[in-house]
Specification:
With about 400 residues, the chain is an alpha+beta fold. It contains 14 helices and 19 strands. It folds into two domains: about 170 residues, Thermophilic metalloprotease-like; about 190 residues, no CATH class. The structure holds zinc ion (2 copies). The site of one zinc ion has 7 residues, from strand 14.
């Protein structure tokens, strides 16, 4: 376990920079049983920040796995009314949300993918109002990570002692999140957010028509952006104007691709953890925005499930730029978790786009959004394709080319 001081600093970061808990606001903490100490620390910091009431919702990945194994498909597709009511209650109360992710990689391998699909689709469908609430930034929300023994052993396979592996993973997470013994992480994050906004501003001013990505691994892809797109990253604002950081850590500057505007091939540079399975060494080919061909050395079936999850999961909803020279990339650690790994590298997401990535998007109806090229899906899965030799070129509406990345890093 990390020292109490480090845990408190990290919890304070989640509360004050992540969710930015407001005075008298209700806070919902979603935690795995694996991360109970961190959930307790967050609860305490949230009260110290003025929370009116903190609800902790506990989950356990093993319990979920047994459910998938032993429940019938019919039972798995039931979404109880009380869950819907509770979710609505949190929304009505104006609660903000802090989720602690503590994944157990590979736990769901061997589960019938169809059952997994059924369960998650039923939930997503009945709780889509909650998805829209969060994705539309109607309130503050933040995702942070905490280690567990199985995860630590997978990240550090050569470490024989599990406690040491857990310790190492805590250190790696603190490093990635800019939490150190000798700093004030909250102050450092305010500065970091400033740097990210600067990149956003430059890219927003260009309003590129499309971006071209090329590297020696075979990535050669053009992504058209929606008109009036907004580059975002770092802190965001709720529709009521409250700042928050949806992801800690975050290094990305991202925007909305046009649903039908992607052409070419992208080669992934890190494995993708989807529904507990690791898809490795994969590539995708797009035509008119849609995945028309793909392959993976491992878990091709899982990749197929993701692409065929629904109509929108075969299209892109996000394109994100991150310099190869960044803390997580420099650590060389593969966290086997998107929250961390996506911040090591340029990535794109299959599935749903973020309304905030287009001007006035959070006020547009679903129909209005789809008209301008927004991709609607129940899925949103990020995969990494950045590399030390990645070149990114922006092409303006009048055909002017601007180098954005050279040798894997931002040059604007
Ligand atoms: Zn992203
Ligand atoms: Zn994403």
């Amino acid at each position: 376990m990390p020292t109490q001081t480090m845990l408190e600093k990290y919890a304070s970061l989640a509360v004050n920079i992540g969710a930015n808990v407001q005075k008298d606001q209700m806070v919902v903490v979603r935690s795995s049983t694996e991360s109970k100490d961190f959930a307790r620390a967050i609860t305490k910091e949230a009260y110290k920040a003025g929370a009116s009431k903190v609800h902790v919702q506990w989950g356990d990945d093993y319990v979920s796995r047994y459910g998938l194994d032993y429940q019938s498909e019919a039972t798995l597709s039931e979404v109880p009314k009380w869950l819907i009511d509770q979710t609505q209650h949190f929304i009505d109360e104006g609660a903000c949300f802090i989720s602690i992710t503590s994944p157990i990689p590979g736990l769901n391998s061997g589960v019938d993918p169809k059952k997994m699909q059924t369960a998650s689709q039923a939930r997503m469908k009945k709780l889509s109002f909650f998805q829209n609430h969060m994705m539309g930034n109607k309130t503050q929300w933040s995702i942070v990570g905490a280690p567990n023994p199985e995860w630590a052993n997978k990240v550090f396979p050569d470490e024989k002692d599990t406690d040491t592996a857990v310790e190492k993973l805590w250190d790696a997470i603190f490093e990635a999140c800019r939490v150190r013994e000798d700093n004030d992480p909250v102050a450092e994050w305010e500065q970091h957010n400033e740097t990210l906004s600067k990149h956003n501003r430059i890219l927003n001013d260009y309003q590129f028509d499309r971006l071209h990505f090329k590297n020696s691994l075979g990535t050669d892809i053009t992504i058209r952006l929606v008109d009036n797109h907004v580059w975002a990253g770092g802190n965001e604002h709720t529709t009521k104007g409250v700042e928050f950081n949806p992801n800690i850590p975050t290094e990305e500057t991202f925007t909305m691709p046009h649903k039908n505007g992607t052409e070419g091939k992208v080669v992934a540079t890190k494995p993708l953890n989807y529904q507990g399975n690791l898809i490795e060494d994969f590539w995708l080919v797009f035509k008119d925005g849609k995945v028309v061909d793909y392959d993976a050395k491992k878990e091709k079936e899982t990749l197929k499930n993701l692409i065929e999850y629904d109509e929108g999961s075969a299209y892109l909803g996000e394109i994100a730029l991150i310099s190869d020279d960044s803390p997580i990339s420099n650590s060389g650690i593969l966290f086997l978790n998107t929250l961390f790994d996506e911040n090591a590298s340029c990535h794109m997401a299959l599935g749903r786009a973020y309304p905030m990535n287009v001007k006035n998007g959070t006020e547009m109806s679903q129909e209005e959004l789809e008209k301008i090229g927004y991709n609607q899906s129940m899925a949103h899965s990020d995969f990494m394709f950045g590399s030390p030799d990645l070149e990114v070129t922006g092409i303006t509406k009048d055909g002017k080319e601007v180098k954005i990345f050279k040798d894997g890093n931002f040059v604007i």
